[in-house]
Amino acid sequence: TSPPDRLAGVSWARQADYLAAASLRVWQQAGVTMLIWFLVRDEPGLGGWQSGVFSVTGKQKPSYHAFQLPLAEVSRRGTRTVLWGQVRPGSGPRPYALQVFSRGRWRALGGTHRTGAGGTFRRTVTLPPTARVRLTSPVAGSVGPALVLR
Q: In whole angstroms, what is the distance from residue 45 CA to residue 4 CA?
């Protein structure tokens, strides 16, 4: 990520987007039952890996919450968007809510819903391009990073 790697790194927000998209791709693969993140904390030297969900100083990056609550855009046609998400940790159906950023604050996008038995969901929403959406769940005890719709 950049920082610290300003030459080859991506922004912290882009890393969170990539992690959520990777979670979706893993879920789509038949027979894959586990996703392991290679590095939890960045390595101290710039020659090492900088892909942790924590910086070298221990600061949480947005990808930390993206790992708990990945949210990805599956498809889009006009204002109709299909979202996929997952609530970690836990087992069985888990409560979640989607929020949209509107008029300067986060607002509920429908009520609280439940995931499937594996903790995932697919949901179709009607939102304009560039809308910002995020996932929240009391199970995770946190809020996921914003996903900007394309």
A: 9
- With H, G, I as helix, E, B as strand and everything else as coil, classify residue 60: strand
CB of 124 closer than 8 Å to CB of 78: no
Give the single-character DSSP code of 143: E
The pair of three-digit structure tokens given for residue 84, joined into one six-digit string: 């996929």
Residue 72, SS3 per DSSP = strand
> pTM higher than 0.85, yes or no?
yes
Rounded CA-CA distance 86/123 in Å is 11
Strand partners, 66: none
Q: What is the pLDDT of residues 39-72, one digit of tens each?
A: 899 999 888 889 999 999 999 999 999 999 999 9
User: Which pLDDT does position 128 carry in this prediction?
Assistant: 94
Please report, for residues 16, 83, 90, 116, 122, the alpha-carbon distance to residue 129 in angstroms, rounded to integers and kept in the order given. Answer: 19, 13, 32, 27, 19
Please, how many CA atoms are within 13 Å of residue 115, restricted to the half-sphere of its CB? 30
